[in-house]
Amino acid sequence: MxxxxxxxxxxxxxxxxxxxxxSLCRQKDINFDWELxxxxxxxxxxxxxxxxxxxxxxxxxxxxxxxxxxLEDWVPLSYKWKELADKSSDSSGFLLQxxxxxxxxxxLRETYDLFKGAxxxxxxxxxxxxxYDIGSDSVAIFNHDLCLISGIGGHATHPCSLNMAVKTxxxxxxxxxxxxxxxxxxxxxxxTELKGSPLEVGWNLSENWRYGVDTHGLNNISLxxxxxxxxxxxxxxxxxxxxxSVLPQDMWEKLFQCQEAALQRKYxxxxxxxxxxxxx
Length: 280
Prior knowledge:
- The protein starts with a strand and ends in a 6-residue tail after the last helix.
- A seven-stranded mixed sheet has the order 3-2-1-4-9-6-10, sandwiched between helices. A five-stranded mixed sheet has the order 5-11-7-8-12.
- By secondary structure, it is an alpha/beta fold.
- It has a single domain (2-274), classed as Spore Coat Polysaccharide Biosynthesis Protein SpsA, Chain A.
- It has helices spanning 17-25, 48-52, 55-60, 77-87, 107-116, 147-150, 168-171, 183-195, 224-231, 243-246, 249-256, 259-274; strands at 2-10, 33-41, 63-71, 93-96, 101-102, 123-126, 128-133, 138-143, 162-167, 201-204, 213-216, 236-237.
């Protein structure tokens, strides 16, 4: 029986998609079967040939099903989550895996334990996590408790945090929506409506968040987030931890080598925004 689904939507992830795949290969304490569903457009894609190289290592770590779905044209992230949910097995939990995120090595195990525990949560997430702005070589800690200070609201209006996962049976109920921004918050609020009562949130309070990182610079998220990471503006806070102490050495070295690609992506995006055609 497949216990956990990992949904991995990608877009223009040729230079960074390896980060998520490596983190999934390196998950620890896996004694259950899980599946990986990947969906991406052909534009600047990491591609199936590269993904195939990870299959033996994923299988060794009990990934018993891997599906790859190629899209001709761009679709909103909300559409991808719906499609991946429909294609998933009847698992307990569905991980929302970002292509530019190195999931901490116990994420699958701890998410599985939370969904199988007595709390029976609808939504699982962590309060803290490292963020790394690749282009500027800047590190910060995201702290969900600082969301109120940042002006983006408390739990009621900004419910989402990091390392998120959803009860698969609930996610399967969601409809197709063309949501381009704040997709995580949209999912949370829409799933609350579909359930008809507040979602039961299972907080992962493990300190293992210290061995994973979300990155900025080779994705298609707002340029303003990079500035917040550099300036440690709430909900980001300062840290003395270098990336070399967070990631395995080979992962850190490979990520650092992505600086030039991140800067080129930034200048390209700024140029499009100035011309009035920039879109996430």
